[in-house]
Write a structure and sequence with these properties.
single chain; mainly alpha
Length: about 300
């Protein structure tokens, strides 16, 4: 919400994307330096082994995180927040497609069926969205692709010796490097004039406060998501929490900004979100079924 409010008077999403990760990296490094043994807020400092940090898998994961983050911020700047989150509901479908197509991981037919309402809901919402434009839609979809690759690489290759907070600090630091080139490629000519206009319209310190606030809240939000995934012993719990979060953000953004939506867009959004919940149920059931077969086979052997 704060991001969108910032973009309304400072339309530089590439710069803001890098700022998010810069603030998060600074926050993490300060925690490492001030509390190396940990305290009530920061866990004990853990450093990733150099071979993993510099390895191609983690570098590619960081690139996907940085580029995907920049893409979704372009979407936030171009369309209503509610529409971006509706398109982001397609992430499970994109992840399933990439998992089966690129990594040879078979996705059960029941899971594909459960994702059909998500696709139908996003299509319905897109067709009738009043703020629709291709930059907003493509930015959200591109971030779905980038984050699907990021999540797969994280699952397969991230060090299991690091807790979730330290993992995300490492990811923020390296991803920041991948967010810097888009600033020069896309916003080099307009960045300084946009800053001057923002200061003229809102004042220097309110502008600085908004930048710091969006950076810190972005980092804490994503760190808490990593912590939640680590804390919940059942993936379904995290999935349901993610659906609830998306419902809240969509509803609150509509109320906060007073965005007008058509009945078809509202219906499409509801169908897409319910589809994500159905996918969570079905995928959890299929995973439990697979684990049950594996246990039975091991017992028979």
């Amino acid at each position: 919400i704060k991001n969108k409010a910032l973009y309304n008077y400072f339309p530089c999403p590439a710069f803001v994307s890098a700022l998010h990760l810069f603030v998060g990296a600074l926050y993490g490094i300060m925690g490492w330096l001030l509390f190396p043994k940990g305290n009530g807020i920061f866990p004990e400092r853990q450093l990733m082994p150099r071979d993993k940090l510099l390895g191609w898998r983690f570098q590619l994961q960081a690139a996907c995180h940085g580029v995907g983050h920049t893409a979704v911020n372009f979407s936030y700047g171009a369309v209503a927040v509610s529409f971006t989150h509706t398109v982001k509901a397609m992430e499970p479908f994109v992840a399933a497609f990439i998992s089966q197509t690129f990594f040879g991981k078979r996705v059960p037919f029941a899971v594909w069926l459960s994702l059909m309402p998500v696709v139908a809901g996003v299509a319905l919402a897109s067709a009738h969205e009043l703020s629709f434009n291709w930059m907003g839609f493509n930015g959200a979809m591109f971030s779905n692709v980038a984050f699907a690759f990021r999540n797969y690489l994280a699952k397969e290759g991230l060090s299991d010796k690091l807790n979730s907070t330290n993992q995300y600090i490492h990811l923020s630091i390296i991803s920041l490097l991948w967010c810097i080139p888009p600033i020069f490629m896309l916003e080099a000519d307009k960045l300084l004039p946009a800053m001057q206009a923002a200061v003229a319209s809102h004042g220097l310190w309110p502008f600085v406060f908004d930048l710091a606030t969006v950076g810190l809240t972005y980092h804490l939000y994503n760190q808490l998501c990593f912590n939640a995934i680590e804390a919940f012993d059942r993936p379904l719990t995290a999935s349901v929490g993610n659906v609830a979060k998306r419902c809240f953000v969509i509803g609150f953004s509509i109320l906060y900004f007073g965005n007008a939506i058509t009945p078809q867009t509202a219906a499409g959004t509801v169908v897409a979100i319910l589809g994500v919940f159905l996918y969570s149920l079905v995928s959890a059931r299929e995973k439990a079924k697979g684990e049950g077969k594996g246990g039975a086979a091991a017992q028979a052997a």
